[in-house]
Fold:
Amino acid sequence: MIRRPLKLVTAGAGGVLLAPAGVWYAAFFVAPLGFILVFSFLTSADYGGIEYTFNLGNYPQLLTHPIYLRIFLNTMGMAFSGTLLCLLVGFPLAYFLATRAGRWKNLFLVMLIVPFWTSFLTRTYAWLILLSDNGPLAHVLRQANLLHGDLGFLYTYKAVLMGVVYNYLPLMIFPLYVSLERLDKRLIEAAKDLGAGRLQTFWRITVPLTTPGILTGCLLVFIPLTGEYVIPAILGGAKSYMIGNLIGDEFVSAHDWAFGSALGMAVIVLLMFLIAVYFRVARRATTAEMSL
Amino acid sequence: MSMSRLDATDLSRREFLELSALTTGGLVLAACGASSPGTASATLGPIESNLSIYNWDQYLSPDTLKQFQAKYPNLKVDTATYASNEDMLAKIEAGAKGYDVVVPTGYMVEIMIRKNLLRTLDFGQLPNFSHVDSTFRNPGYDPNSKHSVPKDWGTTGFGYRTDKLPPMKTWKEFFNNASQFKGKVSVLDGATEVVGMALKSHGFSYNSDKDSELSQARDTLLKFKPFVAKIASSGYKEDLTTGNLWMAMGWNGDFEAIQGQTPAPPVQYVVPSEGAELWVDCWAILASAPHPVAAHTFINFLLDPAVQAQEIQLTYYAQAESDALANIPAAIKNDPIIYPPASVLQPLETRKATPAGQKSRDQIFAEFKAA
Structure:
């Protein structure tokens, strides 16, 4: 009874607080999404544009042509391997920062952020020069007699994965760092007191307790990776054509707005499915943590 | 020469590119001006105070722009750039407003006319059109030049490193020899160019819409794909110079720019004997242009033979005015890459767009990219 007027106040204040973001999302997220959804059931005009004729053919086209499925699979493969690599590189670093860096910790954290002061495109283009067959890296390796002939790294799938790890690593490290930092060190001591070895402590204490951080990091890397467009285009040459590149081409080069919209919707549905899986796993992880 | 050749090698005509496409995506859609679209037959009044030029990058000499502004000091000129005809069309079609002058290639002029995106030109305001050679006055893509005037023209062929590869003359060699130097070949990022050249390698027309011929082109491309390093319309100049690439499909002006460097890398440009594409880039005014008088004034200024002679020293693309030749340095006008002899021009074709043919090309190209 006492809470009732209070509730009214919060509801009103809540509305005010939500309004700016609400208007923003309605205008720049929900409305465009609505367009894409509607376009995906219409017909493309010749050389771009849309005709307002109902058309169910855009989605079947996606399933009947094996090339599109292959592009989806390639993209998912790239996103999974990119995420896994970021985790393998990022976890030890985050662990070091949270437990061993001592008074240098802040310096290291700043060093992780500094590269972001330069534009993402500039940094990615810089790799073009570094990895070039006659670039600085090739020269050093040749001088050291470690390389004969061409470097042959640029415009390959390996170059794309390297660019992905380079650009996405901080997105993985920060959530990992936060959850490792918050980890109650006494639990680790307790595990040791009870006779657990280092590995056992790591697998049975550290990893389960930092699972939320691991999942968040993976999600932050994986989702934007499924739409990654720039890194494959710059570093991958002809070797890695991803969904993002295909959608861009459908709208701009192939003038097929309706099919491009259907592809966009397919990516959204796929991601929604993967996020649902994520929440399920995350909830289980948190429950496990609670019961600990 | 006001522009050194080295300046021109920094960025190519079509190079700003991708970069702009990648970074700005659709953001450019936001309108710059808000004036009602000019109708084709409206009588033109006095010159406006603004002009907005939407062009390929590095495709208008800064000197020309300076001279134009000196002549019309009260006119404020804005420039914006795009990476491909398709890029430009997509933005205009999605409703980008405020641009006056655009630079579509011939086939794109045809498409834009069909979509009512171009304004009928008022030749009373273009007295310098009299300098344009008669061969360019009634092009197939724009009968009687009602909507466009030629800016320059060139060829699409390929170039290769003569220190790495034996002499080559044909598209057949381009596609078939690639297996011997895997990861050293690039093609343009254009369905029409890539599928068209594969058609040419079989001796078919660049514009063929026959399923049987297109499927042979497709087979050639899929066999060729494993050896391709890059599908891009920019950067091949630098990659050929450094040796990242040994062979690349591209536009003649870019190869001219490579050879203009000191020291000149050993790169040879070829217009293959089966034929290739001859393209004409055009000045045109958008139907939605808010400043049509300024746009006409600008195009007329560009058609001045002295200005044309200045432009070629930036772009290395041939002009459509014989009157300009007197002012063009001999090294450029006698260069067979820029002004090819009649025997080279004879088998060339210009692109003719049909919706069905485009659809098949786009599908083959998507398959090529994903393979």
Summary: The longest strand of chain A covers residues 43-44. The first helix of chain A runs from residue 3 to 39. Chain A has twelve helices and two strands.
